[in-house]
C-alpha cells in the first residue's frame, strides 16, 4: 500500500508540476501580448502628440492658407468662400421672419418674432419634418414641392402671438447645408449633393430659384431674403448675442472687405464680409497623423480631402478608436486570439459611444463593459482592459480638441484678436454649434483649456466660448431680417 501511495504521490507531483509549467507558459504568453498591446497604445499616443509649439505651427499654417484662399479662387485648400453677408444682425431688427433649414434627412421650419432694439427675440416656434428617402434621389421639383407644401402648412398655423406688419410680404432665410457657389446674398448654384442626396437635375441650378418656384406653386407669398450655409447661420445667430465666430467642423468669421484680394465687387458699406472658410479641408505637415488616419482617409469616400475634419470632427473620432483596437487585437490578441467580427465593421463605434466610455466614472467602468458587450459583442473584459480603452478614447479626443483649439487660434490671430491692444476693451465670443461640443464634456473642456493655454491668461479673459443651440436656423431668420426689403423703412 505504501508503495502505491508513494507512486500516486509521485505521479500527482509530476502532474502538478506539468500544470504549473503550462500556467507559467500561458502567463508569459499573456504578459507578452499585454506588453505588445501597450507598445501599440504608447506609439499611437506619441504620434498623436500636440505640444504647444506644434499647435502654434498648425495655427500659423492655417493663417497662411487663409491668406492664400482670400487671394484667389483655388489658391488654397481652404475655399474661404465669400458669403455675400456683408452685415450681420444688429439687434434692432423688428417684425416676423421665417427660416427653412435643410441640411440632411430632416428639415426645420422656424418663425421668429423680433421686438427691435433691446427686445431681441420675443417669440419663436419651430417644426421638424423628415424627408422620405425616395425624395432624396428623385427630382428637384418633387423634393422642393414636398418642402414647400410643409412650409405652407406651417405658415397656415401662424398664431395670433406672431404679428406680421400690414401690407408686408413675409420674408424667409434659407439655410442650405450643401456645397453651393453663391453669387449674391439670395442666390447660389448647387455644386454637388452630400449626406445621401443624389438629385442630378438639381446640380448646377440656383437653389433659391427652385425653392421660390415651389413656394409659388403652393401659393405661398414669401420672399427668400438670404441664402446661408449652416456655419454662416450659426455666426449670425451668435452675433445677435455679441458673438463673432461660429465653428463645428467648419468655421466662419467676419473679415475686413479690403483684406479679400479676390473680391472684385464694390466694397460693402459696412467694410466687412462674412467668410465661410470650409476649414475641414485644411491640411498641413504639422498635423500629427499616424498610419490609422492615413488608412481612414484612403478608404473614405473623399480620399485626400477634409483631412483636418477627419481628425477633429465627431463623425471620425470613434472610427479612429476602432482602428487602433483592431490593430491591438490583430497584433497583440487584446480581445483574444481572433478579432471580434463586429470590431471589423467600419464606423460601428460612433463618437457618442466613445464619449460615453471616455466619461465613464463608475469604479468598475460598467459603461465601458456594457458598450463593448452591446455594440461589439465583446464580453468578459477585465477592468485593466477597460482602463486601456478609456485611455485610448482620451488620446483621440485630446488630439482632436487641441487641434480644434489651434484652428481657432489661427482665426483669432488673423483677426488680430489674439492680443490686447493698448487701452482697447475688446470682447470676443466664439459661438460653437453641434453635438460634439454640446455633449462631449471632456472634448469641450480640453478645447477650451487648450485655447486658454495658447492665448495666455490676459487675452483669455476677453474671450468667451458659448454653445449656440440651433444657431443655423435662428441665424437664417435673423439674416432674413437684416437683409429685409423693408429695412431702410424701419430704420428711417
UniProtKB/TrEMBL annotation:
Gene3D superfamilies: 3.30.420.40, 3.40.367.20. Pathway: Carbohydrate metabolism; hexose metabolism; Carbohydrate degradation. It comes from the Eukaryota. InterPro entries: ATPase_NBD, Hexokinase, Hexokinase_C, Hexokinase_N. CDD domains: ASKHA_NBD_HK_plant. Residues 41-240 form the Hexokinase N-terminal domain. PROSITE patterns: HEXOKINASE_2 (PS51748). Residues 244-481 form the Hexokinase C-terminal domain. Its EC number is 2.7.1.-. SUPFAM superfamilies: Actin-like ATPase domain. Keywords: ATP-binding, Glycolysis, Kinase, Nucleotide-binding, Transferase. Belongs to the hexokinase family. This is Phosphotransferase. It comes from Gossypium hirsutum. The lineage of its organism: Eukaryota, Viridiplantae, Streptophyta, Embryophyta, Tracheophyta. The gene is LOC107942756.
